[in-house]
């Protein structure tokens, strides 16, 4: 089987995980990385043996051998221009969520990938979580009968919530519930969402950065199924980037409860009061010789898709639909009423203008 060259743009928390996974993958011949922080760039380059390590991401466009590019940069305003540049150059692109900041930008990226004949996918890593994959399998096989209702409650710690909400003005619906929206739509397909109603609470974060503490979203599907998704990011510290999720999937002939609250591994020490929950982040983390979590497997899958010419698990059209749902949730909060789907596009919508100067991601 042939080997390819891959690149990672932005090697922070998630990008670093992806870079290390790619460096270990037998189908990756050379790895190229871009990162604005020179100290972090040197750290990841040393850990991965990267063939290229640059602070200027556009330099990667000039390396003809690169076939697959992982766009993991922050802030999220960079996603659209970076993904567009790599798609236009004929590269297969893996893009961290969100797909874009506006539906018009997302439409453009999906259409561009289709015209270029390249793979384009979004980082919805929870599809690679075995517990979530089991839910999908159970629903697809009809084990629960006809789906009736779904409830998902997701919470992350305040430190991570402050970090995310402080760098981009996107809601918990757009940055956290988006994973669960994608997951539910994946499970319930071919059913489509037709109506969204949402509310928010602003108590803890609003005085600091104007962000909501949590969003609760109710989605009505065209087959009558009702979905309720809650996402918040103000949990007290428990473990760096701790994530807790609970899922209830109820059908006409059965019910499935999934505990993804990460309470199965508890660490207590004399030097640190209280308990912490290792191996509890959404992306996962290394545990010695193995990686515990979905992100490494998701990263490897895209390389294998490119080499085999196989369509990625997450289709860009599915990511676009998830974006419509969380956009509708934001609009519902703003208007105080349900929002019907699909959302009409505004051809005159102001495009995001972002000047990417030399050396800036």
From TrEMBL:
Residues 5-124 form the Gfo/Idh/MocA-like oxidoreductase N-terminal domain. Residues 136-341 form the Gfo/Idh/MocA-like oxidoreductase C-terminal domain. Pfam families: GFO_IDH_MocA (PF01408), GFO_IDH_MocA_C (PF02894). Coiled coil: none annotated. It comes from the Bacteria. This is Gfo/Idh/MocA family oxidoreductase. It comes from Caldovatus aquaticus.
